[in-house]
Amino acid sequence: MPRPSLRIQTVLYENDRTQLDRFLQGMAAATATAKEVGVVGDVVLAIGDCSSDPVLSEDWLDRYRGAFDAVTYLHYGENLGSAGGHNRLFASLCEEHVVVCNADTYASPQLLVELLAPFVDQGVGVVEARQVPLEQPKVHDPLTGDTSWASGSCFAARACVIAATGGFDSELFFLHGDDVDFSWRAKLEGWRVVHRPAASVFHDKRLTLSGNLHASDIEIVCGAEASVLLGWRYSRPDIAERNLAALACSADPRHQEALSRIRRRQAAGTLPEPLDADGKVAQFVGVDYAVHRFTLGA
Amino acid sequence: MAGTYDFSYAPGTPYAHAVELVGRWRRPGGTVLVDLGCGYGAIAEPVRALGLTYLGIDQEPAGVASIVERGGEAAVGDISDPAALFGQLDDALGGRPVAAFTMLDAVEHLPNASDVLVALSRYAHAAGEVPLIVSIPNVSHRDLGIKLLLGRWDVTPTGLLDATHVRFFSPRGLATTMAAAGWSEADAHDFDLEASDQHFPADCVALEADTPIGALLRTLRHTAAPGATTNQFVRAYRPETTRVPDHAPRAPTSPSAPFLSIIVRSEGTRRATLEDLVLSLAGQTCDDWELVLVVPGAGAARRVEHAVAGYADAVRARVEIVDAAAVTDRPWSLPGAANLGIDAARGRYVAVLDDDHVAFGDWVEMLRSAASQHPGRAIHVGVASQRVVATPGAWQRHPEGVDDTTAGPTLTPTAAIDAYDVVDRPRLSSPPGIGLLELLGAPAAPACAYALPRSFFSDLGERFDEDVAGAADWELAVRAIARCGVRTAGVVGLMWRLWDGAPQGIHDPGGAGRPHGMDYDAWAAALSALDRRPLLLDRGMASQLAGLAARAGSGATTDRGPDAIPATSPATSPTTSPATYQSLRASVRNLALAKADAEAAVAAMRASTSWRVTAPMRRAARLLRRAARLLRTDSRG
User: Fold this and answer.
1) Interface predicted TM-score of the whole assembly (ipTM), two decimals
2) B266 and B164, same structural domain?
3) Is B446 on the interface with A (CB under 8 A)?
């Protein structure tokens, strides 16, 4: 029986090469382990670059060509955002599985082995990695791994799930919320989304000096925007209006920026068509998209 | 010259120590002891009492004449000429077998001592492995070191700084010189003096044991290296055929040495958290580190090898596993394991962690940055804690990823492994910037927060105190900060897990419900250890202490603290049993510690810039919540 092919893909935006070196070093080792264990056939690395100037060169990438069966690098020349950048890469996806991963991560040696293991179950469409040192706070079923959504920091998906969903909705989401939306649309297509604790990946998230999760301004803007858009998309206008009102009450300029973006979208008539009218997949729990074990303040 | 003998030789003197070594190490079959640079032959008579022939060689005829006059054998000769040494010895011995050589108060007078020792080693080897017994003054005696700090180098007619000495030896210098000359140390019977001939002036406060400065300097010297009170090195050596190169460089000066040695103590039983820790190190933004995993035995070594298997060569090359059982007979203990890790470490700084810690991405980078700005100081990072529960067997893992020490390969697609589940958000348990006073007042503060200069161990000779189990990490951190000072890296660098329903980690089996499980007894033992020697206060601490004293004074009448509780049950409380009294007293103490921790944490948080900066955000969050409540009310209405 032929071993399934795999693509590992990441999208860059003004990253430094040291970070990429580290990322690729980890992925190369994880690929070697997966091949040694025999869970993959060809492993292809695909990198999309949203930076103004190319971060990488073909010469620089030569050092990793031996670690993967093929390496492709696309400089887009424009900032498509994380969702748009991944979608551009998805367009050429011909492998059976794809691992979507941030470049500020480091793969554990067993990452790929463990991310692919749940695909033995034909109902599993998306497998989420466990992040170290700060775990996602959302719950997952301890026996089945089922979870509300898979973080785009690092997950594996079947290529057919990408094809069925069209990947991320880059028209609606630039940076945040795209993974929640993708997961829920995959579920609407009948696929399960599971969390795999043994698939660990280091994700360079940090705490502030007051012990809260550090978040950049753009992450806060996009997160706030997504909180409204997801409400509309998943037939919960009450959630969307609640969050919109909350943003309107906030003096935080980042919240005001999110509000402006939404107002422009309303004016342009580009609000999403509602899905999941029966509420089968979407979870809105407070301000979260799943039941959480704990909160990560930002 | 009986008077010379009577003056020089007596029990308990360096000469007597040397004769004892002659008795222990004399070569079987040898009949002659050759005393090179014999002076007046102080040991001639006791050597003859051992049944040996005494043969002295010296360039001063007066001493030689004295020996001969006393019935001994002696010859005039220049032992400082290595080329002539073989001939002189052959002539004097006339074919008789040598039992031992002695050089008592002689080596330090030879400008070319190394050359002479090399020649003698060759002769001794050829003559049938003849031992050499030396007596050499120690210029690293505490008295000399302290006086040198005071700008004094008092040359005297005799003694440690005899005006005729041309070579000076410390323990390390002696070892290096002898090894380089082809001599291997066989025995030591050093002559110690608490107060050497250099212990003057008599009223010098730095030399007195009872003054804080004197006690500090004594502690420093005693801890840093052996020989603090050794007046004379009295040693026996065997000739070696292989010479050690002179002035061999010390290991830590290797240019490939990393900035940080991360010492992790692990019994290899918590695979999941250990894997997370290694992963978090591999993901560091700065790779200038090495990992020293200290484990209690071969089984644990095999288990932890799985945690580092599969990583890129660049990562695996920076990992060393130290099997404690293979290098020491001492029973496994956490402070002992830390000491073994220190011994193996090569980095400029060291951090000691346990296998349930995990690092944030810029931990090493920020430590290195802070250390470059404040070289030699301890560097502190904020430490977060997170509550977890152990969930044995809860995680499914591909069978190829499971080693035979946990679950064993199976034919099923998955196998269960040990695991844990996070049940609470990370909380800051040690805010950045905690200093000596704060640490003294917060014994539960995680000691892993401090990266320490390795010089603290390698140059000052400090070690984890294996006698203060349960508080050794904290006690060492206090000692280190007192010696090195501390600066903050200004980040939250580490996180450690608080295990629900299980002991608080391998470092504190006592538990007792406190973070890191330090109970009163452990804390008291650690404090007692700290009290045995003076603490050094950093610049700026006078003001801090003054503030602390003022606050303590203002509350003295209303809150005397747990120290005011008598150690034994007062006679006026006959209804309380001694055991109950001690239990209650310990509880009060622990409550006081918890209160002090909480107050320190609140004070640090309120004083932090981020708390003040985020005040508008918190107000906005409150507004958001109110707005949301209003909206919910409207929709229901």
Assistant:
1) 0.97
2) no
3) no
